[in-house]
Amino acid sequence: MHAQDLLARRFETHRGHLRSVAYRMLGSSSEAEDAVQEAWLRLALADTGEVENLAGWLTTVVSRICLDMLRSRAARREDPMESLVDLGDTGYDSDPEHEAVLIDSVGRALLVVLDTLRPDERVAFVLHDMFAVPFDQIAPIVRRTTATTKKLASRARARAHGDATASSTELAEQRHVVEAFLTAARSGDLGALLAVLAPEVVRTADPAALPAGMALVARGADAVAKETLLLRNRSQVATIALVNGAVGIIVAPRGRLLLALTVSVEGDRIAAYEVYADPARLRQLELAVLPD
Question: Do 84 and 220 reside in the same domain of the chain?
Fold first, then answer.
């Protein structure tokens, strides 16, 4: 067998792992594929006789490629939140099946939180916490000392887990109510929505969060429930998360933040919620993954 063909076969055995690493770093399946392909090109040009651990070598290469892509994205001031605000409802059902599977395997909330990290923090956190790569192997990738690399991952971990303002009991109660609301929205169950909304519930929203002509404030369970059914497709790409320390909802098509809801729970019902869509306001929110 030709040496290049043998090398290609060896590379293919690692492609799935490399794609997983790249996707968690970049949050985009197309960009992850680009990073993996670039890793293959570099391998094809390398002196493979000097590569003792191909899996480790490829992970390092694809991580450096992803870090460069993340830094380039930041330098161009690309804002995935702003670019998604204009998608409107037509964007909610456009996830390719394979990317939907990737999102589910990582979690929409975590992908959104990862997008708030600095490139070096994201790389350190993904490699160590998700793929168990030792810090002394990550340090050369991010060009930091081992001690500093540990701090990068620690800061990222703290951001990912957030700082809940409520007790664990209160969080559990909030979660039960918010999950019931989201489940009812996904299934289009008007009765279940009315059951979880307080009679005098108030919904407020940024203008960008609503179709043209829809009121910025909606009052009463009946009005809010019917509006929720009208915008039901949003719930298909929504998930619960910590929003400003309490249980809320984020809407994230393709794993990128589009909307965030802060929710006020009183007893076993939702008393009010606010929908954030303005990019500047979204950036001011503290988002984190809910603890299991």
Answer: no
| φ/ψ (deg, to 5) at 244 | 55, 40
* Cβ atoms 165, 258 nearer than 8 A: no
For the chain, residues with pLDDT lower than 50 are 78-95
Q: Do residues 253 and 94 touch, judged by C-beta distance below 8 A?
A: yes
Q: What pLDDT is attached to residue 106?
A: 76
What is the DSSP pairing of strand 259-266 with strand 287-288?
Answer: unpaired
Q: Do residues 156 and 241 share a domain?
A: no
φ, ψ of residue 33 to 5 degrees: the values are -65, -40
Structural domain of residue 267, as residue ranges? 168-288
Token pair of 191, please? 């009765």
Question: What stretches of the chain show up as alpha helix (H) in DSSP?
Answer: 3-26, 29-45, 54-75, 80-85, 97-106, 108-114, 119-125, 131, 135-142, 146-161, 168-187, 190-196, 221-230, 279-284
Structure tokens at 257: 């933040």
Can you give the pTM of this predicted structure? 0.83
- Residues forming beta bridges with residue 250, ordered by sequence position: 239, 260
CA-to-CA distance for 28 and 64, rounded, in angstroms? 16
User: What CATH number corresponds to the domain at position 189?
Assistant: 3.10.450.50
Domain count, the chain: 2
Last residue of a domain, one of 134, 161, 188: 161
Burial class of residue 17, CB neighbours in 10 A (0-12, 13-18, 19+): middle
| CA dihedral sign of residues 215, 216, 220, 221 | positive
pLDDT tens digit string along 154-210?
999 999 988 777 788 889 999 999 999 999 999 999 999 999 999 999 999 999 999
Residue 248's DSSP bridge partners are: 241
Q: Are 203 and 224 in contact (CB under 8 A)?
A: yes
Which domain CATH number covers 48? 1.20.140.160
